[in-house]
Amino acid sequence: MAKALEYLTEALRRLPGVGPKSAQRMAFHLLQHDREGAAMLSRALYQAVESVNHCALCNTFTEADVCDMCADEARDRRLLCVVETPADQAMIEQTLTYKGLYFVLMGRLSPLDGIGPKDIHLEKLLARAADGVVGEVVLATNFTNEGEATAHYISEMLKARGLQVSRLARGVPVGGELEYVDAGTIARAMLDRRST
Ligand SMILES: [Zn+2]
């Protein structure tokens, strides 16, 4: 195989769930049938890697130092809601019940996959929550085993610093991922959140 083609195949294998065969199929497809798409993909990737960073406050993706939501003066700075992903954050926003700010972990604790406190930015969360303005941290990680374990760990960590912590109420089904729960249920769970 041509060196450049081999390199492309190796690069495509970095994508989650892509094995050697499908990587090769993708590479052939791009070079044979969609060179324009291939060029677009390469430009988009380059641009995203150069310009997209993590928000200094909430850790979500942004092209600025601080994302639009964290910069929004209308949000209630005394509330900080911890979610696993930007998709979960979007779900909570859809409920229109929450006007505080967020911290996006970009994952969850998962010892079996080697994902520990460092990988989900807990030091950054701790610094954020202890800014002296935040009065309540609302844990809105998923109601899966890993999400619950993550909520428990964060709750202990923040309470040890004297911070007030609450957890979404159990309207969300056991094993439930926020992304797939309807907005009404999440709204209820947010309103009924309780101290941990
Ligand atoms: Zn932000």
TrEMBL record:
Cross-referenced SMART domains, in alphabetical order? TOPRIM
Its biological function? May play a role in DNA repair. It seems to be involved in an RecBC-independent recombinational process of DNA repair. It may act with RecF and RecO.
PANTHER family in UniProt? RECOMBINATION PROTEIN RECR
GO terms in the biological process aspect are: DNA recombination; DNA repair
User: What parts of the sequence cross the membrane?
Assistant: none
| Keywords, in A-Z order | DNA damage, DNA recombination, DNA repair, Metal-binding, Zinc, Zinc-finger
Q: Which GO terms describe its molecular function?
A: DNA binding; zinc ion binding
The domain of life for this entry's organism is Bacteria
Query: Source gene?
Result: recR
Q: What is this protein called?
A: Recombination protein RecR
Query: Which Pfam family, just one, is annotated for this protein?
Result: Toprim_4
Check the record and name the Gene3D superfamilies matching this protein. 3.40.1360.10, 6.10.250.240, RecR Domain 1
Q: Which InterPro entries match?
A: DNA_Rcmb_RecR, Rcmb_RecR, Rcmb_RecR_Znf, TOPRIM_dom, TOPRIM_RecR
Concerning its family, UniProt says: Belongs to the RecR family.
- Zn-finger segments (C4-type): 55-70
Q: Where is the Toprim domain?
A: 78-173
